[in-house]
Amino acid sequence: MGFRLSCIRCGKHFDNRKNPIRCPSCGGQALIEYDYDQLSSIISREELAKTPSSMWKYSFLMPLMKDDFIISLGEGGTFLQKAERLGEELGIKNLYLKNETVNPTGSFLDRGVAIEATEAKSMGYRALKCVSRGNLGASVAAYAAKAGLSCRIYTTLGVELGKLYQAVVCGAEINFVKTYDDALKFLENPCEGEYTVSVTNPFFLEGIKTTGYEVCEQLHWSPPEFFVVPVGEGGHLSMIWKALRELSYVGLIDGVHSRLLGVQAKSCSPIVEAFRKNLDKPAKPKDFGMTFHDIAVRQPMLGELCLKALRESNGYALAISENKILEATRLLAKCEGIFAEPAAASTIAALRVALEDGIIERSDKVVCIITGAGLKDPAAVKSLIKHSAAETPIAFMLASSLDSRLGRTKRLILKILQKHPSHGYLLWKTLTQKFGLAITLPSMYQHLQELLAAGLITVVNEGSPSERKKKVYVLTKKGETILSSDFTT
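and the corresponding C-alpha cells:
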C-alpha cells in the first residue's frame, strides 16, 4: 500500500524519503497519509483479530515498502491492564493502563525507532545517530545493534544514567555536549551513510501512533472517553489523535469521540501554558527547576501539532507538581505492580487532579499511557524510596549504606562544596586537575545523583529569570554532619 507526505501547515503533498521532516514549500511539519478509501475496503476487525498481537499487525497503516526487511525486537502488543485497585483508590471504575514499560528497552519510543531502523536498513545506511535525553538513545542503540549498524548518540551531562548505560552496553558511541540545543546542531550535517533518528521524523511518528491502534482494538473497538498522555516533545499525544482519526477513516471505529489530556511537570510546562493562554505555539517556561527529563522540554519540537490535537479533541492540559508525580509513581506500583519512571506515572497524578476538578467524570472510561520503566531513572527511584519509606528500616538502611561507602570521590565532592557551591563541570575539573582523579563526567554525575538522593547535597538555580538557569550544587546540613563525622574523615 502506498503513502505520501503531507504538510500540516500548507496541505501540500510531496515525496522525499531522504528528507521527509519539513515541507519544501513552507517548512511545516510533515506527516504521512494513506489512501484511506482503498484501505477501508480491504481491512476488517475480523481479519485483525486473526493476526498475532504486535504493532506490525497494523502494517497496512505504516510507511513500509514491499521489500523492507523489518527490524524488530518484539516492540508493541503491550498489555492493557484494567486497574481495579488503583481505580478504587482514585474513585473511578473504568480505568485502564497501557503498559509501555514492557517494550524491549522499556519505553514506547521503541515503536518509532523500529520503523526508523527498518527505513535506514532498507535504504542502505550504515549508521544511526540521534540526539537524546535518555530513552531515545537507549532505544536507538539497541535497534542499531539488531540491524548491524553503528550508532552515535549526542546527549547532555545531566542524562539519567540508567538510560545511558543501556546505550553504552549496546555499543553506541556517546558524545557529551553542554546543552540539548548544542546537541541538535550535530544533526544538521550528517556524514555520508548516517541516518538521523528524530522524534519529528514522520516515519518515527508512524511507529508511536500504534499505541492508539492497540488500545482501541484491546477495548473491542470502543475507544475510551479520555486518553491521558505524558507530554515532552508532544509527538505521542499528537499521534494517538492521528491514530484515532485513521481508524475512523477506514471504518474500524465509529467516529472519533475520545478526548486527550496532556500532562507536564509544573517546573517546565510550555505546552500547558500555551493551552491555557490559547496560543498556537508553546510558551517559554518561566522557570526550569529540577524535574523529569522526558517531560521537561523547554521548546517542544512538536508543540504546535500537540496543541492542535488537544483542541481538536476538546481536550485538556495539566501541569502537575513533582511531589504529586512521585507520589503517583509509588501509588501505581503499590496498587497495580507497575514500576514506572516518574515521567510515565505523571498520568496517574494528572488523573487524580482531573477527577477532583471535574475535568474527567468518575463514570468515564479512561486509559493512562505508562510510557517508560522505573529503573531507567535511578536518582528518582532513590528519591521515591527515601520519601515512601521514611521512618522505616529500609530508609535507615539506604542512608547508612551510602554513608558507609562514601569513598574518596564522594568525600572530595562534599569537601569541595563545603568551601563553596559549584557547577558540575567545575567540580569535575577540580577533581581531575587538582586532586588527580581519573574520573569520567558520567561517573561524576552518578556520584552527584547518589549524593542528591541521600540528601547530602542539593541543587539551586543560578541566574536571573531572563537568563538560562545553571545548576549549582550546594552542601546540605546533613552533608555537613556526614562530612564532619569521624567515619568519613
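(Above: one complete record from the training split.) The first helix runs from residue 36 to 40.
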